[in-house]
Amino acid sequence: MEHVLPPAEELARLDRELAELDARRARLLTRRAWLLAALRPPAPSAAPGWNPSAWGAPGTGRPDAPARPWGSVPPKGPSAPRGAQNVLLTLGGLLLTVAAIAFTLVSWGSMGIGGRSAVLALVTAGALAAPAVLLKRGLTATAEALTALALVLTLLDAYAVHAVAAPDTDGLGFTAVAAAVLAALWTGYGLALGRLHLPLPAAVVLAQWPLLFGAWAAGAPASVVGWALLATAVLDGAIALWGRGAGTRVTACVGGSVMGASALLVGLTQSVTASGPLGALAPGALLLTAAAVALAGAWRAPRGVARAGGVVAGLAVVAAVGGVPAAALPEGWRVLAYVSAALALTAVVRTGLPGNAALGVLVASAAVVAGALVGALPGLAAVLLGPVTLLPDAWAGPEEGFRAALGSTLPWPELRAAPVVLAVTAALLGSAYRWWPSWARIAEPLIAREAPGSGATAAPGASGAPGAGVAAGATHGAGTPGAPDSGTPQAGGTAVPGAPGAAGAGGTPVPERPDTGTPVGAAAPGASGATETGGRAGAGGAAGAPAAAAPGTGAPWYAGGPAGAPWYTGGASAAALRGAAGAAAAVLGWGALLLAGAVLDVPYAVAVGGETVLVAGLLALAVHGTDGGRDGSAAVRVTALVVAPAGAVSAGLLSLASEGASYAVFGVLGALFAGAAVRARGGVPRAVFAVAATAGCTVLTGFAGRSLGLAPHEAAPLVLLVPALTVLLGAGLRRDPVAAPVELTGALGALVAVGLAVPDVPFLALVLALCGVLAAGAAVRPERRPVAGHLAAALFVLATWVRLGASEVSFPEAYTLPVTVPALVVGFLRRRKDPEASSWTAYGPGLAVTLLPSLAVAWTDPDWRRPLLLGVAALVITLLGARHRLQALLLLGGAVLALDGLHELAPYVVQVAGALPRWLPPALAGLLLLVVGATYEQRLRDARRLRDALGRMR
Fold first, then answer.
1. What is the pTM of this model?
2. 562 - beta bridge partners?
3. Once rounded to an integer, what is the mean pLDDT over residues 765-778?
């Protein structure tokens, strides 16, 4: 008998098959277009400047070759002859090098001095002369291989001269001289044979060692070694700027970076370990010279290198200038000298340094200040988290000082400068937030140097004049045949159908920008025209109000103001920067005051009061802000909103040392947060403050229980006072946004009360019943009834079960059946009156009252009668649910029947599993997975049918 699919499934199958046919047709059309392009004769010539790969088309390797379809893998051809030649030459040169080294080191003693000298001189001369002959014959690769061999031979010659002719000379001194001679030799050799790539980079590598080894051999002090390293770095910088060949310049850049970093490391080490200000002058001079060298290199370097040079120069200046006064200061105050030097570096914005180098210097200044702030983090973390140690010994008595209450072993004298650093940074950021336009005008010269188009002419097509886009697009001309559907122009000036882009002059297709879809060279709508020096908008643009700088135009990232106006006068970016400065100032100022109390070791009462006052200040800042009309004030309020609860937690933990302090601090904090919840304007701040006030009141009720000498389980009903108040408050607030968070916090307090009552089962039943009363009170409100009503029923049932268990009742049916029968009768009458009523509402509570406790007892009952009777009852309920299509009966009865059967079969399953081979369970599991995987679609359909069948039940 043929199985007929339902209409919905058959329609879905037809849609899938049609989609597969469409995909197959698209692939065939793509292949057909590529074959047509392959059979088409090549174009006579391609327009100059056209590069298909720049517009998304794959490269082809030859101008007249058709593009491959997207996703195709190019065929792997045989190795190129030149590649195989290079492999052979490399292997040959390597073998000759190994032979030369073995001859020099192993077979040296079997020949006389004349023979040895003659052999080395002859082989080296031949290796040096051969590349010139090979270059004339066009054998460049062979010449490179012999050049490498000659390089190794010259090194071996130097070793041989030292071993035979000058064995008594100092090794480091001889190495310095030999490196200098070889560097000069290979420099001249590379300049003479300019087509070789190896000699000049090799000369650069050899030039790194003469000064360093010479200073080392002479036993020079560390400062001289640092100067030698710096001189070598200067030489490398000159080679990197004016050297011949990319390999030479790259090698010089790497060598200069290593040598310069080594020189800086030497200077920094000497500056830090100097015994006094006079001892720090010499390394300071080295560091300042290194900074000048870095800035000189950054002046002509590309953008990224210039910024890196500015960072290095800034760090060197900070180390040099700050190291002199730091040497005269005690250990804990030295960081102030470096921070002061770093802050002084911000004056670079008014100098004539290039924009990228000046930006690097500012990054270095910010990095030094950030490092100082990071150094203050351990002390601040100890102040905030240290009071956690008071939890095990709460109310043990007030401590003598702030540090004793923290219980931290940090070296506080070494952190004496940390509050000052935090305070100074907070003051600077606060002034930047308060007087933002003034600070921005100070930085305007740097911004003008970095602004796009500064000192340059406008790019073609950027003027906004009519036809500019066509003029720019016409330079591309006609392209080579592109990949199908790629949108690249075809030969002859035609475009593939459906290709993007607007036609230019004479029907020439104009390629589009991949990100915007506008033709290349066309002015964007609303663009202002040619750009003048200094980044100011010129005339000739579209008329209308100035628009904000669009992304992708090259504008600085912080440019958020209207076009033609200073960026600091408005815009999202300026407001974000200003808000970040204000938020950071608030956090750092709060941290500075906290840390100052720990560093000064103020009395315990002062510390507790001070932290509470700081929380009050943060709440005032979160509620009222700084200035409603100032940009970025929202960020300050949000930061205060986040930091205030954290400060309240720290102050509350600190108050646990004393009973009186605990009541005072939590009472004041609760009142402060409650007042803030009343005065705040936004929904989220009000909710946060209300939740914090509720949590504080809950803690106060716990304190009251401990003060009364109650055990934890005896204090649980007292803790429920706050949840009861939240229920009443929620009834008064109704649909206010604060109502739900407050009630949820009260529910968490009730959960804490349940946790406290767990050790004593009778009290647990009492607390559960009280929680049920509270949930029932919340269910009086229509908006809370769906959740609170079910929760109240569950809590009452659970309280009943716990009470029965506490009374050691072995036959719970005697108590549950009298409840189940009336409940089922009421449910039957309800269903009879309203057939659409849910079976869970009508029969669910009555069945759960008996089935679930009986199941719990049956799992611990060794007798067979209770499991048998329970299984029979569950089977009857399941069959009734299936017969009358009642979801509650089917699911409850089936679940109880399955668990009861599992309990009865578990011992036998364990015995069978112990008797089976160990490989059999994994094999069966794998077989099951294979079967399920093979019939996966059918199983999904079965699961959907089952879900739909259950969903249609009442």
1. 0.63
2. 548
3. 92
